[in-house]
Amino acid sequence: MRPKFILLLGALIPVFFSCNGVDFIDDYVPPSIRITTQITTLTLGSSVALEASYFNNVGVHIQAKTIEWKSLHPEIIQINAEGTASPLQEGQAELIAQTTTEEGDVVLDTILITVVSNVVFENEDEVPIDHDIEGGMQNSSVSPTLRILNSIIEISANTSYQLEIFYQDENGVESHPETLLWTSSDQTVIDVNEKGTLTAIGSGTATITVSLATSNTLLFAQNFITVTVPELETVTSFSGNLVTKSGYTLEGGFTLSITETGLQLSLGEDYKASTTLPGLYVYLSNNNNTTSQAYEIGPVKVFTGSHSYDLPSSIGLMDYQYILYWCKPFNVKVGEAKIYD
């Protein structure tokens, strides 16, 4: 019996030490808050509801945590208690989400958003802001004039814009008549009220007409406008590099990206992983010290070169902060990659 026992022990020793490491794991990670709505631009006249998640000191998502929002540039973007951001003027604004940890510390995350115009002017080089025209000359030979001062060629859907007019009567006197009539050729595309305020409703084109009946003639001015539905500019992928945290080979670039069906984790041509490890698995986690609460992608079957893993649509791009490579039979970390800061 003894020779057989010695042979069996000799076979198990290299397996045990092929995935060696310390089996005591400190699960602590600093608590954090994460703004998960990663947009980069907002259009004037629109708004967006931002979301944020809090993770405790072992990386567990605490859903009932109260989150406070504020804008460092409220003159550009205002944000309410629920996280709805509303732009007021063009520019850049930094928004903050913060909360208090169980230990009483304040943690926060920030996002920088650029506010862009919701309209395209007929002449982008000369955006009309004000228009001073000399008037008041008493000249009976002057023809009455009505025109739109700030015509546009394009407006974003679900936003508004105020058209301004210039009117000069037959005596050369400038005024703002109360009897202007504003109409839209297609109210399902653009609606306009009695003051010339446009509301872009859906994609398409429409002609806005302002008219005025004088004693001798009917004056009118028109603006042909296209309504577009801009895509919200968001972060759709993160890239980085795998780093070994053991004596075993693990290296190469990765990209985690949104696809039509969910997420895809892609490893690059420079990817290499040791083939001597039994039970090497890959995970997504919010704690780089443990696979507890982690999402198990599966066993590693490719050890060199490019390949990918398709992930379910239930996983969001910012649901996890780390990629972990783990020796599952012995619960030892082999390496990791930080998806984003």
Give a short overview.
The protein is about 5% helix and about 45% strand. It is mainly β and about 350 residues long. Strand 22 (about 235-245) and strand 23 form a beta hairpin.
Count of separate structural domains: 3
CATH topology descriptor of the largest domain: Immunoglobulin-like
**Quaternary organisation:** single chain
Secondary-structure-based class equals mainly beta
- Please give the CATH class of the largest domain: Mainly Beta
Main sheet: strands, sense, barrel: 9 strands, antiparallel
- Uncertain parts: 1-17, 126-139
Backbone shape: elongated
- The helix content is under 10%
Mean pLDDT: 89
How much of the polypeptide forms β-strand, as a percent range?
A: 35-45%
Number of helices: 1
Rg calc: 31 Å
Indicate the CATH architecture of the largest domain: Sandwich
Q: How would you name the CATH homologous superfamily of the largest domain?
A: Superoxide dismutase, copper/zinc binding domain
N- and C-termini, Cα separation:
57 Å
